[in-house]
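Supplementary Methods, section 5.1.

A reviewer requested that the exact input to the structure prediction be made available. We therefore reproduce it here, unchanged from the version used in the analyses.
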Amino acid sequence: MIFKTWRIGPGISLLLTLTGVATSAGEPTAQSDLGQPRFYAQAPWASVHRDSRNSDFSPLVTSTSLVKSWSVLDGAAVINPGVVSADGSHYLTSGRGPGYSHLHAFNADGELLWESPIQRSINDLDALSGFNAPVIGPAGDLYIGDSNQFWAFHADGSVKWVTPLPDQGNPFVYQVISKQGYVGGITVDGKVLFYNREDGSLAIPMFQLPPGIPPAKGPALPGLWLGGLFHESVIELFKQIAFGYGVQVANAPAVHPTTGRVFITAAGPMENGSLTGVLYGLDIKDTGVEIAFATKMGGGSGTSPALSADGKFVYSADGVGQMLAVDTSTGEVVWAAKGEGLLSPAIGDDGTILTGNIFAAPTVVALSPVDGSKRWAKSYDDYAATMLPTLKSQPPEFPSGKPVARLVSVVSASANVVWVGMNLGYDYHQPDTGLILPVPHKTVVCALRPEDGELLECIEVRDTVEGMINIGTAGRLSVSHTSIFGSFFYYGLNSTLPERYRSPMVPVGGLTALEPASYCEQAKLEINKVSHLLEQLKTALANQDGHRGAQLAKRAHIQLGVMNDTLLLAERKGELPDKTLRELRERIQSFLLNIRRVIADLTEATPAVTPEASQYAPLFNGSAIPLPCA
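The structure derived from this sequence is encoded token-by-token as follows.
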């Protein structure tokens, strides 16, 4: 159901010009910069949390009006949507065990490109890779670990190399690439390992994090991932990683894009009979790994850390739900927001920290990066009430009967929208644990307004989405159906619940791809964004702020550089006349050359001498091109 659309009017246009720098025959037309660090692939979503900072933020705009495009991997739970390469290909994992492949490649239309060889023995890519996601290196190769080995694949699916991990059954949670170009990560038992990308040889000596004691028990979830969603041999470890117990490390490291420092949360030592957690800052040197700092956190392994855009702060929630902001240089705690943040933080376009609570309202929370104060905190139970009926209460398990909406995914953010996955259902008060868990009756992916969290639009999807939401080019999204709440209630509790409260959602898992309802309208949003960035750039130049100007020019270059994808899709769907497409593509190419000139000039300029806006008249003056949408 649509609550509020967020669109621009039909008359919006971008001032593009054919004057200025002409397109040379040798000038590439493909976008070569998507804001990733140089040691990662320039891809829309190159690692599990998008980039080395774990930001879950895409600098591209997205339409709020989406439709389902395609779905794949029916019958397999998918922890996360994997990664998206520069050409729109999706690479993701599953974990159904012997007789199945576990790494899958699909093109932008959902057509299978290739799969890893079927697991027939422990020497094949095995089911423990199913909690993982590849990381894409600068040459387009994929790196991923399983239970006992670390694998490198070329983009065409051929094996580049494979090398053993130290201990069977202690895999990487996720992989990263270091500033030096080494690839590796941190295993669930705290081993820090980095390998040479070229041949898989160990690049630096293995390093062991100091001992830590994780929580011994997690939630009781009978029925979790039954029905073949995961192979029975991996369910317990996956559950431990997902809920942060029984393993020292359960999260994805972050890598500082400038200094190369690696950040990871882990279980710490017992202190006075209480569990602790630690946020480590690790320096990767040619001689080995050095601990730069070890900042104490609340008990447990916490969440994956995420870095601010300027790299000055790292954010993570600890095991008691406290969000911390830590200085990336010193390890000093800058602020702590008590009681907020049970999910890995995402970083919004303006630096806002986005997190949430899966058990209660408010379910989505936005924190100020300055002091951790709430910018907004929202409940969406009113929306749930429009989608589901109020049921007769049945205490003690269902004392209310009113519909609720609960965040279940990690939050993602585009340049104009906050994206969340929510379950709509009824609060179930679990008798033996005291937890309040939502019985899913519907699952939706929703767009929120970044300024205040207001619900804009939602689209219903086929299974629960406890993983993540990836953002590609042309406003395309992909969501993973992890089916935690779906399988737990359907297979484990449904038979014990009153019939009207039982979850009607049959767990199916897989990945769902979403696309704009209109690619032409998506193109208008992209044009509007570039126009806004150029207005800001003009102001920055007038204020002699070259640093800010360079940032804005780069953002405009990123958005405009991928617009060709949107225009081609609009033309393919009959939304844009071919003549308009050709004219726009020509002018965009010329426009990109002018923006590159600005970036080069501002990069070379001294702080005291910033070029004037008048030097770049083609960027700010020219004939307007309307974008008629069929």
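Helices lie at 232-243, 381-387, 484-493, 519-542, 546-561, 563-572, 578-604, 617-620. These observations are discussed further in the main text.
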